[in-house]
Automatic annotation (TrEMBL):
Family membership noted in the UniProt record: Belongs to the TRAFAC class TrmE-Era-EngA-EngB-Septin-like GTPase superfamily. EngA (Der) GTPase family.
Residues passing through the membrane, by range: none
Official protein name in the record: GTPase Der
Gene3D superfamilies tied to this protein: 3.30.300.20, P-loop containing nucleotide triphosphate hydrolases (3.40.50.300)
Organism of this sequence: Neomoorella glycerini
Entries under NCBIfam families matching the protein: GTPase_EngA (TIGR03594), small_GTP (TIGR00231)
Gene behind this protein: der_3
One MF term in the entry's GO annotations: GTP binding
UniProt entry tagged with the keyword GTP-binding: yes
Domain EngA-type G: 4-168, 176-351
Functional description taken from the UniProt entry: GTPase that plays an essential role in the late steps of ribosome biogenesis.
Top-level taxon of origin: Bacteria
Signal peptide start-end: none
Any one GO biological process: ribosome biogenesis
Length: 436
């Protein structure tokens, strides 16, 4: 289920990033980062009163230093309009109303999109004259806040949540949802075309056609697959297109909806920093993944090339050692036929439930073999484990001192579970809870 998007717009220095950090900071749950996985800080998931949304700081996105100020702010606003469900238009009560503010307000007003006019840098709420002039923008009551001190931010979040579109009903059906992600030109559209067995999607170097999310259905025998947002993927922009930054958000959204993520790499280029980041999206969200090394036809190789390549990938993408790797060529079709079966297998592993009895005999054995190291002379005991969730498989371990189960021991338990049950392709979550 894709989360609604809330975009922050405004002139430089009005306090957008301060507000962004505030809204995703102390008072709001942040999605946990995985060590070693970098993540674009311009997009962050936030939650308020049980509603989740993705917050976008357009200030960072649209920065193009050579543009005149007004053009920069205008571009942010246009991008926000293209993607956001709710827009926070931030103005600065210290500098007061400016001509740029008025121009952007005009654009936002005409869009008819829900806009909250945020009057920032108000530290004294007893003085209504601070926000008065902003009524002129025609965007309703300005909401006074102090981003830096967190004043009135709860009210702002209340308003945001009230304006979010109704939560969509969970997508049903048996089709496996697949996100195809990767840098531009690694061959994503070529792979999708191969999977479709027809040239329905255009593989070309031309700038893009449409920006709407379009899913593609594939059926093979009894099996159904949905390739998520293939239109966004086939969009090309070798020319510097500021909205291309949104492809990050786009990939994140596709991954969010997916059961399995195909992480596509270019076999001639190895693993780049950008590849790591993209591969990290799925991992962070607990999604199953398959690593596809494409353009294998271009890689000069002998009988050891593949093994060496695999070893390199395992090193570079060490946080997702569970993901199977396929070496393919979308151009020649080599091994493309393995993709759908691999998706089936990995999708099944991500949904797998293990019986509590079997789980506990494996855990007991693992603990007997190597007990958790004592901390400050106190024994750490694991009593019982249970699987509480699938996609990803999530286990709770009840123990006497959950905070003392060291990370390396958690790793050990995860490896034991994988040895016993497989779970190829899917991350696992291990949680430790207190129990007497
Ligand atoms: P952005 O360019 O719109 O992202 O603005 P920043 O978040 O970088 O903030 C610009 C400046 O305004 C920084 O020096 C902030 O510390 C300051 N600032 C942000 N929010 C407030 C506020 O609520 N009150 C005051 N007094 N200063 C603020
Ligand atoms: P996307 O931007 O990730 O969707 O990449 P495309 O599918 O548009 O492919 C980018 C370029 O790489 C195109 O010129 C493709 O013809 C080429 N390409 C894609 N897959 C392969 C492959 O397996 N081998 C070779 N040699 N070229 C490929």
């Amino acid at each position: 289920m894709p989360k609604p998007v809330v975009a922050i717009v405004g002139r430089p220095n009005v306090g957008k990033s301060t507000l962004f950090n505030r809204l995703t900071g102390a008072r709001v749950a942040i999605v946990e980062d995985t060590p070693g996985v970098t993540r674009d800080r311009l997009y962050r998931d936030a939650e308020w009163r049980g509603r989740q949304f993705t917050l976008v700081d357009t200030g960072g996105i649209a920065a193009r230093p050579d543009d005149p100020l007004v053009a920069q702010v205008r571009r942010q606003a246009e991008q926000a309009l293209a993607e956001a469900d709710v827009i926070l238009f931030v103005v600065d009560t210290r500098t007061g109303l400016t001509a740029d503010d008025e121009e952007v307000a005009e654009l936002l007003r005409r869009s008819g999109r829900p806009v909250i006019l945020v009057a920032n840098k108000v530290e004294d709420f007893s003085d209504p004259s601070l926000t008065h002039e902003f009524y002129r923008l025609g965007l309703g009551d300005p909401l006074p806040v102090s981003a830096i001190h967190g004043l009135n931010v709860g009210d702002l979040l209340d308003r945001v949540v009230d304006l979010l579109p109704a939560a969509p009903v969970e997508e049903e059906g048996t089709a496996l949802k697949v996100a195809v992600v990767g840098r531009p030109n690694v061959g994503k559209s070529s792979i999708v075309n191969r999977l479709l067995g027809e040239e329905r999607l255009i593989v070309s170097d031309l700038p893009g056609t449409t920006r709407d999310a379009i899913d593609t259905y594939i059926r093979q025998g009894e099996r159904e697959y949905i390739l998520i947002d293939t239109a966004g993927m086939r969009r090309k922009s070798r020319i510097a297109d500021p909205t291309e930054h949104y492809s990050v958000l786009r990939a994140l959204k596709a991954v969010e909806r997916a059961d399995v993520v195909l992480v596509v790499l270019d076999g001639t280029e190895g693993v780049t920093e950008q590849d790591k980041k993209i591969a990290g999206y799925g991992h962070e969200q607990g999604k199953a993944s398959i690593i596809i090394v494409n353009k294998w036809d271009l890689v000069p190789r002998d009988d050891k090339t593949m093994a060496r390549y695999e070893e390199m990938i395992r090193q570079e993408l060490s946080f997702m050692s569970y993901a199977p790797i396929l070496f393919i060529s979308a151009l020649t079709g080599q091994r493309v036929a393995r993709i759908l079966p691999a998706l089936d297998a990995v999708g099944a592993e991500a949904s797998r439930r293990v019986a509590t009895g079997t789980l506990n005999s494996i855990v007991r054995e693992a603990v007997m073999l190597t007990p958790p190291p004592a901390v400050k002379g106190q024994a750490v005991k694991i009593f019982y484990a249970t699987q509480v969730k699938v996609k990803p498989p999530t286990f709770i371990f009840f123990c006497n001192r959950p905070e003392d189960v060291h990370f390396s021991y958690q790793r050990y338990l995860e490896n034991q579970l994988r040895q016993a049950f497989g779970f190829e392709g899917t991350p696992l979550r291990l949680l430790f809870r207190h129990s007497k």
